[in-house]
Amino acid sequence: MKSKRIMLGVVLFFSALCGMKAEHQTSVPPVKAGNFTYTLGSGKKDSLYALTSEWILLYFYEPTCEDCRLLTEQIAGSEILNRLFAEKKLQVLAIYPDNDRELWKSHAFHLPGQWINGYDEYLSIIPGSNYLFHSLPALYLLDKEKYIRLRETTLEAIENAMRRIK
Fold it and tell me: What is the per-residue DSSP string for 46-100?
């Protein structure tokens, strides 16, 4: 397990080194998000492409990260996102991109119950995908067809995009 954490650190380091982080980067032209499988607390497996909502807020986080905890609270308190969530136009998929199930499970209660909260049991999401991020938390906004509309962005940029779209 320690070697897997080291591998995650190496991937994050090289992502940063290659300049993959951009605060308000949009994908022009849009890039199709890579599909991946995640594991839920029940042990059930599901996939990104199984989600059918008009918009998907893909939220990569670390259970013990203070910035992640603060961002979770901000997302949960967002008026525009809560309205779209209530209208079934937005789904939040929170993913812990590691496989320490016990750590993930011990912090799962920090996320709103209506969000989908999963972890990467087989460490298959980051390698070979277009989810190379500089640091956690990392936010992506995907449309219904799973195209990345905002990559490694801020909550403010997502809220602004959602206000324009309605």
Answer: EEGGG--SSEEEEEE--TT-HHHHHHHHHHHT-HHHHHHHHTTSEEEEEEESS--
Its pTM stands at 0.82
Query: CA 126 to CA 135: how far, in whole Å?
Result: 13
Identity (one letter) of the amino acid at 120? D
Tell which phi-psi region holds residue 146, choosing left (phi > 0), alpha (psi between -120 and 50) or beta: left
pLDDT tens for 124-144 read 887 766 777 788 999 999 999
pLDDT digit string (tens) for 72-129?
Answer: 999 999 999 999 999 999 999 999 999 999 999 999 999 999 999 999 999 988 776 6
